[in-house]
Known about the structure:
This protein is of the alpha/beta class. The chain contains 15 helices and 18 strands.
Amino acid sequence: xxxxxxxxxxxxxxxxxxxxxxxxxxxxxxxxxxxxxxxxxxxxxxxxxxxxxxxxxxxxxxxxxxxxxxxxxxxxxxxxxxxxxxxxxxxxxxxxxxxxxxxxxxxxxxxxxxxxxxxxxxxxxxxxxxxxxxxxxxxxxxxxxxxxxxxxxxxxxxxxxxxxxxxxxxxxxxxxxxxxxxxxxxxxxxxxxxxxxxxxxxxxxxxxxxxxxxxxxxxxxxxxxxxxxxxxxxxxxxxxxxxxxxxxxxxxxxxxxxxxxxxxxxxxxxxxxxxxxxxxxxxxxxxxxxxxxxxxxxxxxxxxxxxxxxxxxxxxxxxxxxxxxxxxxxxxxxxxxxxxxxxxxxxxxxxxxxxxxxxxxxxxxxxxxxxxxxxxxxxxxxxxxxxxxxxxxxxxxxxxxxxxxxxxxxxxxxxxxxxxxxxxxxxxxx
Length: 430
């Protein structure tokens, strides 16, 4: 076994020496834009940068901004991330040390497959979702563990904020403050205002699929399902105040209760304004949140009659809603995301611990041109890739972020725009 481990580590080490600092970012949306800005700010680590997406013109526009602002030489490429063949061709030509998958979660598996075929390491911010079903679990990606281990490659899963930083917060709490963590509540508040009647802070299709599904939490060794938005209560967020918070199903719970088995209950909460919920209710009631295909008769472009076409209502809705990338300019307020934990401390007594970050939408926009929700996801993605390239997070296999040492990541959060704060033995409200 030690021979295999040594060999795998050796392989990874060789790759890091030959292509050290060479990164490919797949995606050109809000999160990818933030991550690209942060990558360019750290040219000592990221020595060569390429951005690729289905629409090359978006990559070109972003690269132009980055190269002008940071004096970099970011290059671009076109790729359909649904196509393993196209991905393999791009990765074989460019030969990145790590691929940052900041595209859609539908594409996680194709990108992982292409990485395996070409010997590239992998990082993403959200777990795989099938296009035709709103279903969230890590099993599809965990199935790649043995193949990545055997190839001597590292895959880092869920390196955004939630999942991502919240999982690292939990690992940090376990390492420094608790003998046993018993109760974990991840709390996510967006107290910002984009001054639109209705908009989503990231891809509308992904966002609406997520929050319209049944809630799920973990308690006493089993998962408990709830109706969508069934459980809610006001929670007080630092610097913001009380906000109604709703229990949702969120993917990091699945890995956290495995990696920290003393947890008796784990839940995820997110805030929504009443206006947002009213609009969402209407969208669902008129069938626009559907993810299955519907047929309708559309007039032919040449005026010769009608033809039957198929559309997915939620995809159509995405096309007419405000682009999340365009929300930043008039966005004010801030986010507050953190972990509230109760358990047995290192002194053998019961303690509470709250670790969190508040992020200003305006500050995020001034730095990157994007709002705070994109910022809080894009910055951790960059830090995760940095951790890998520095050899700090580089063990072969498929790993959720809490499986790595949290300390160096936590240090980098303070340096790169997401400082964190602690409250010991405060009222968790939960």
